[in-house]
Specification:
rod-shaped; 138 residues; 4-stranded mixed β-sheet; alpha+beta; Double Stranded RNA Binding Domain; 3 helices
Length: 138
């Protein structure tokens, strides 16, 4: 995990970076299994603070989140909550996608692993097949 911080119109603050790094590290370890690159930018415009966070990781995770407010620590908390919701949603999609693939594989094994050549075919079956084929395709 690689977390970098940049400051715009704000002096660098070790307490702020430590707080943000602690929150994001916990979140990234929970949801990302591959290497994650996190860029956090702190900005100040007159009285309003904004925090912008980019998270890139494997499993097609590429998030850009932002939050604005008067208190910078509340902005960080809100940003972490947003990131948790988004990462949870991505993880659920990923799990659901894998479950569907497993079901398809099970169906394929059930139907296509049988030796169809060993099953005897009657003349009646062939006649039924030809009749339905002619009805469908003329």
């Amino acid at each position: 995990m690689n977390i970098s911080f940049t400051f715009k119109n704000t002096p660098p603050n070790n307490g702020l970076t430590a707080y943000c790094e602690k929150k994001l590290a916990k979140l990234i370890q929970k949801f990302c299994t591959k290497l994650a690159i996190v860029n956090v930018r702190f900005e100040k415009n007159k009285r309003e603070h904004s925090v912008i966070c980019n998270i890139k990781s494997g499993h097609s995770i590429d998030l850009e989140l932002s939050s604005k407010g008067i208190e910078i620590f509340s902005c960080i908390d809100f940003l972490v909550d947003k990131a948790e919701k988004k990462l949870k949603k991505i993880k659920e999609k990923f799990k659901h996608k894998n479950k569907n693939n497993n079901k398809k594989e099970q169906l394929n094994e059930l139907f296509f692993d049988q030796d169809w050549e060993l099953i005897p075919i009657d003349a009646e079956d062939i006649i039924k097949y030809e009749k339905t084929k002619n009805k469908k395709y003329g």
